[in-house]
Amino acid sequence: MKIRVMKFGGTSLRNRKTRTYVYRHVIEASKTSKVLMVVSAMGRYPDAYATDTLLSLGNDHISKEESARLVSIGEQLSALTISSELQEMGIDSYSIPFCDAGIITDDTYDYARVLDLDDHMVKRRLRDYDVVVSGGFIGINDEGKVTTLGRGGSDYSAVLFADMLGLNEVEIYTDVDGVYTMDPKMHTYAMKYDQLSYDEMLNMKSRVLHDRCVTYAKEHQITIHLKGTFSCSAGTIISQ
């Protein structure tokens, strides 16, 4: 069973118009592979279901355990919405519940440490469906309670799923088509890197990918293909 893990960020999922670009990538990939689609919460603050918007609904009295449940709603809603839209387009899709996704963590609700990866249900759903959609950022502890993986947690989830499934590469899609020498939205003369090592990526302190994602990819030799949702360019390859 050939599998591709494809992760999409919040700005790519903000509305139905931006999601049409996402679906083009996923549908094309599903012609030759099973796809595990990892999704962030839709949009950015103050979009209704963005992580920071949900976080703002709590207050100083909410516990970290409750806060984890609150912010995890964004990824769960995103996965369910996207799966339903794929089904509407005739794609055999399924949104896997966070409790079946197999990312087992400790009890640190806001920046959990991953203890184990259980591939049982993910592989089962990939056998049953062409596209399986999972919310990123979310884990569960040994009591089945929601935990979260911190900022950039969906990117981290993507490499965890790749490792879980025995893959040596993962595709991460953002609203820019690779890693640049500086922000291409602000500097038209910014130059894109075709390839970077893990250490080079970490030393750049770039916000494009979270350090936990790159560090885990380095430790487990998982190549990251960073691509643009709204582009057909090759993007940037991050590897040894």
UniProtKB/TrEMBL annotation:
<dbReference type="GO" id="GO:0009089">
    <property type="term" value="P:lysine biosynthetic process via diaminopimelate"/>
</dbReference>
<protein>
    <recommendedName>
        <fullName>aspartate kinase</fullName>
        <ecNumber>2.7.2.4</ecNumber>
    </recommendedName>
</protein>
<feature type="domain" description="Aspartate/glutamate/uridylate kinase">
    <location>
        <begin position="2"/>
        <end position="226"/>
    </location>
</feature>
<keyword id="KW-0067">ATP-binding</keyword>
<keyword id="KW-0418">Kinase</keyword>
<dbReference type="InterPro" id="IPR001048">
    <property type="entry name" value="Asp/Glu/Uridylate_kinase"/>
</dbReference>
<keyword id="KW-0808">Transferase</keyword>
<dbReference type="Pfam" id="PF00696">
    <property type="entry name" value="AA_kinase"/>
</dbReference>
<keyword id="KW-0547">Nucleotide-binding</keyword>
<dbReference type="GO" id="GO:0005829">
    <property type="term" value="C:cytosol"/>
</dbReference>
<dbReference type="GO" id="GO:0009090">
    <property type="term" value="P:homoserine biosynthetic process"/>
</dbReference>
<dbReference type="InterPro" id="IPR018042">
    <property type="entry name" value="Aspartate_kinase_CS"/>
</dbReference>
<dbReference type="GO" id="GO:0004072">
    <property type="term" value="F:aspartate kinase activity"/>
</dbReference>
<dbReference type="InterPro" id="IPR036393">
    <property type="entry name" value="AceGlu_kinase-like_sf"/>
</dbReference>
<comment type="similarity">
    <text>Belongs to the aspartokinase family.</text>
</comment>
<dbReference type="GO" id="GO:0005524">
    <property type="term" value="F:ATP binding"/>
</dbReference>
